[in-house]
Design goal:
The protein has about 200 residues and is mostly helical. The protein has 9 helices and 2 strands, in the order H-H-H-H-H-E-E-H-H-H-H. The chain is about 70% helix and about 0% strand. Strands 1-2 form a two-stranded antiparallel sheet. Helix 2 packs across helix 4 and helix 6 packs across helix 7.
């Protein structure tokens, strides 16, 4: 914000003293004949007025561009590569049901290569890090993060935001059990278990 303010003050100063962008636009606004006849005080005032208006237009443009970049940067920093729309609240019922089926809520649950409340494998951790890399995020998950419920949920959200941007619940459940190339037949029993919890049966 400091650098933008300095830039804006410098730019306005140049505009008011006759910088090249305003001089070009001013020359397009007034014909040569009008400029040659600009000896009167009224025309001089009009020239300054036009330059001030052009300064304001440029300032608004740069301010809007800077604000958009700032908002985008803040969004990336706050989410660490996880889309804002993929919040815990939107996926919470599904996540809770998956946790119950996968580990019964135990963060230290281990079954083969699968670990944590969501029984995350090393392959999925690597896939999440690939997604973060593609999104140019510096964040990276470690295998030990699987024992953290919070980190496990972050990985789930990241995985869904990349492979399931339309928030398809069935796809989310089946892919969590059978991968992105899941078999409907092989994931049916798992899907039914999760859905029964979601539906309160």
């Amino acid at each position: 914000m400091f650098f933008f303010t300095v830039f804006l003050v410098l730019y306005l100063t140049l505009c008011l003293t006759g910088c090249w962008p305003c001089e070009i636009l001013f020359s397009l606004t007034f014909s040569r004949q009008m400029q040659e006849a600009a000896g009167s005080h009224k025309v001089f005032i009009m020239q300054k007025f036009v330059k001030i208006v052009l300064c304001l237009v440029f300032s608004f443009f740069f301010h809007s561009a800077f604000a958009a970049c700032a908002v985008e940067s803040m969004a990336v920093e706050d989410t660490d590569g996880i889309d804002v729309v993929d919040s815990d609240n939107q996926w919470k019922p599904v996540i809770d049901a998956l946790i119950q089926v996968e580990s019964n809520g135990k963060s230290n649950a281990v079954k083969g290569a699968s670990v944590g409340v969501l029984q995350i494998t090393p392959v999925l951790v690597a896939e999440c890090n690939n997604i973060l890399k593609k999104r140019k995020s510096k964040k990276r998950f470690k295998l030990s993060d699987r024992f953290s419920k919070k980190k496990s949920i972050e990985m789930f959200l990241l995985f869904q935001s990349w492979f399931n941007p339309m928030h398809n619940i069935e796809q989310a459940i089946r892919s969590w059990n059978g991968g992105m190339h899941y078999s409907v037949a092989k994931t049916q029993k798992y899907f039914d278990k999760v859905m029964s919890i979601l539906q309160g049966k």
